[in-house]
Amino acid sequence: MKDKVREARKATLSVAGLTAFIEVIFHLYMGLDMKYFPIFFLSAASFGMVCTAILYCLPEKASKIAGMIVVICLSVIFAAECLCKEILQQYYQIISGMETAAGNHLLDYNAAVRDALIVHIPGLFLMVVVPIGCYTVLHFRLKSQEDKKKPEFLMAGICMAAAIILHLAMLGIIFFYPWKGDFTPEKLYQTDTHTEDQVEQLGMITMLRLDIKHSIWGTSGEDTPDIQKEAQETVKNQETPAEEDYPYNEMDIDFTALQANAATEDSAWLSEYFGSLTPTRQNEYTGMFEGYNVIFITAEGFSGYMIDPELTPTLYKLSTEGFVFENFYSTLHFTSTSGGEFQNLTGLYPKAAFPVSMSETGEQGTSLPFTLANRLNQKGYTSIGYHFNENMYGRDLSHPNLGYEWRQADACGRPVTKETDESGHEYWPQSDDYMIQQSFADYVDKEPFNIYYLTLSGHLPYGFDSNEMSKRNQEAVANLPYSEKTKAYIAAGLELEKGMTSLIEKLEEAGIADRTLIVMAPDHIPYSDLDILEELAGRSFGTDTLEMLDEQNVDFDVYKNTWILWSASMKEPVKVEKPCSQVDILPTLLNLLGETYDSRMLAGTDVMSENDPVVIFFSNSWLTEKGAYDRYTGTFTPSGSVAMSAEEQKIYVENMKYLVECRLRLGELIIENDYYRTAVP
């Protein structure tokens, strides 16, 4: 009997061992940095001991079943996070992300999930089959005795004490070990953002536990940066004497009074920060397109590497005969398409965690006075937005809040009608060309108009069996010297090419092409299919895996993309060499349209001003005209034409790191505090 009891105890203790096993296997399989092993191992072991303590408080049968539920849940969670990382390039916080996942049509990702499951069979076997199999063998080979095992509170107490000791040991390593770098375990333990680094350094279990904690009680340790007015000297010094003739792009806002009367510390910080900045000046391009119609396209999964003068002549024309941004980057930030839209339309960075920033603006009715629609509507523009898909990311609320009459397949006043085949089957994805054809008549006679299109044809996965648009254009790419997947990607993109061709033709037929501004930018690159980009670019981007981006190793040229800014009224192209990114689109457009706005209150920069935009990547590495900073190594590499002493480099890097940290926080704090509502007249 004693042997049976000992075996039962060992079996119950297996939950703690299997919890640690799953965490360690996940780190090894995902290629995460193992130097943080003591932290995530102790975290997993501590959590496992807590679960074990609870199991010892239950009768034998209930303990076995509950233990199996724990192991299955952990296995499924880790497996799901593995798939999320591949498909969406991010880990999901379990509490904060549940509402977003529940509100989206995840069937759109069916084929991508299937492909990911196939790719990750080895990892899923280790994280799911092995733990569940081990638990089954250890527990269910033990037959219940006539004297059923009663709760063992002594063992429960021992396990709980062990859990506390393990947890304290983990905290000791986090807070007392002299970690180095921009992101340390101590910093990450006190924030609800930077989930990628939290998982790598603290472990998946701790990231999920902190998410639950922060969802209930909020964060306590994520301080806003101390305002450093001297950091602006690098910006001020860029202004040329000739530009002093131009007024500033600013509004009459008393930031000192706002700071003094702020309702929250975050609002006070925002006012102090904005008040410390020098606005950008207007320039020779200010008002160049004042009064023009505007058509803005966010292109799903688009990469400029696919543009070809023969295969995509319209996209080639628009990208080479208007403003030509030779160093534009579509940096990947949180929540995929919604995060890309947020950058394009608000000039701010999304919060690097849940809740989704764009969705939150709709749910909270956040004041966003600087969006194109909200500015242009004040001048009598007709603003309509289109997306030929069902409601995702809460666009039924967010996009009307941006200022658009929003039209999608459901959850709106005027639903669009999807394209179907003869049997009534809805195509997936939908055609961008069809979207243009169906919508143009809505607004052509409503000048001035401001139209927004969120495309769909370029949605993953890319295959002639899984993507209707790829299948539709298969013949056009049949002879290209690429793999089947890359040809399928291009074929899907050809539907956007056809749509843009239709749009230009219709504008010309209506006689309004020369007073219409066309803007197009991606939401993100095809981030799960880097092999496509390497084929199209004809070069390697240095990442360890072609399924997942790893900014620690990847060449940032993987994010190089095309931002189209064109009107038929332009007589010659305007080349812009400055590095810039999606958050710079809105302030640049506001200046070109002659709109009143305050340049201090956006994270982006008017690229046509004398100020230097900064391209910020999700890892917090960054790029400017002066050079590139690698946050993983802490090194700055000056551009070839820039000469800096060691001391000048040090000052510049510290100033830019401060600005990067501030700009990444603006969107989050502005939304959470509805700051614009009080601050903007």
Q: Which structural traits does this protein have?
A:
681 residues, alpha/beta, 8-stranded mixed beta sheet, 4-stranded antiparallel beta sheet, 26 helices
Structure overview:
- This protein has 681 residues and is of the alpha/beta class.
- It is built from 26 helices and 15 strands.
- The strands form three sheets. An eight-stranded mixed β-sheet has the order 5-4-6-1-7-9-2-10, with helices on both faces. Strands 12-13-14-15 form a four-stranded antiparallel β-sheet, with helices on one face. Strands 8-3-11 form a three-stranded mixed β-sheet, with no helix packed on it.
- A hairpin with a 4-residue loop joins strand 14 and strand 15 (635-638).
- The longest helix has 29 residues, at 60-88.
- The model is unreliable at 232-241 (pLDDT under 50).
